[in-house]
Amino acid sequence: MKKKDHRIWQEAVTRDIKQISEITGNIYLSTLIIGKRANQISQQTKEELDERLSEFKTTVDTLEEYIENKAQIEVAREYEMKPKPTLIATKEFLNKKIYFRIPEHQ
How far is 1 from 53, CA to CA, in rounded Å? Predict the structure, then answer.
């Protein structure tokens, strides 16, 4: 799986509504597209995390194993530090890296 560029602000930033709505001509449609892309990113991230955490699954359930598994904690922290999916989707949208099409009404 190829690495993604995650150099994005870690916190919310005020955005210019005109800039966002300029791409589609409608702020609501732009928000919908960003939201759908954020869901895709979130799903991909969850699948990656589940895949990496599956290495740590055990059949024995003891309290000591949960406390002492530092590698699993490091993996979880790594994913917590990643930018939020909505911030990634907004950056992609503003950089015109999201493909979308608007179906024609009949």
Answer: 16
The answer to whether residue 87 is domain-embedded is yes
Note the pLDDT of residue 1: 45
Where the chain has pLDDT below 50, the residues are 1
**Total of domains in the chain:** 1
The pTM (predicted TM-score) of the whole model is 0.76
Range of the domain at 45: 24-94
User: How many Å apart are CA 45 and CA 49, to the nearest integer?
Assistant: 6
pLDDT at 30: 95
Tokens 């190829």 belong to 2
Asked if the structure places residue 60 within a domain, the reply is yes
Residue type (1 letter), 12: A
Length of the chain: 106
